[in-house]
Amino acid sequence: AVVSTQSTGYRRFIKSPNFELWFQSKRTEANQRLELLHIQQLSEADMYSWKMDKHEVEIVDMLLWIRDRYDALQRLGTNPDIQDHLKNHIDTLLEVVPTDLQSTLKPAFNL
């Protein structure tokens, strides 16, 4: 009888408008946590080694990706250590692109 009552209450909750709000909130919270963990892992990556065998286009793509993650970090909540690591990654990668490309990219990455 208790299980039947719990099942009925659960079914009602799933069909209620409150469930959609609750589910959306939990989903957003989980996605933000995953995004933050991904950014944290990116900040801990060894960009110095990574850049060694990469082509210019791959480095620029990574620069854009890091910049996007940096902006996401601003939205998710500031963590100064992670921000500093991402800035260092950008500096590390900018060093290996040609000078003319550096002059084009640096203003966009002035964080």
Features:
111 residues; mainly alpha
Radius of gyration: 22 Å
What's the oligomerization state? single chain
Number of helices: 6
Structural class: mainly alpha
Shape: elongated
What is the string of helix and strand elements?
HHHHHH
Number of β-strand runs: 0
* Largest sheet, strands/sense/barrel: none
Extract low-pLDDT stretches: none
Q: What percentage of residues falls in helices of 4 or more residues?
A: over 70%
Strand content is: under 5%
Tell me the distance between the termini: 61 Å
Rounded mean pLDDT is 88
State the gist of this model.
With 111 residues, the chain is an all-alpha fold. The protein is built from six helices and no strands. The radius of gyration is 22 Å and the shape is elongated.
Break the fold down into its secondary structure elements and pairings.
Blueprint (H helix, E strand, L loop, with lengths): L1 H14 L1 H27 L3 H4 L5 H21 L3 H15 L4 H7 L6
Helix pairs in contact: 2-4, 2-5, 4-5
Model description:
The protein contains 6 helices and no strands. With 111 residues, the chain is mainly alpha-helical. Helix 2 (17-43) packs across helix 5 (80-94) and helix 4 runs antiparallel to helix 5 (80-94). The relative contact order is 0.11.
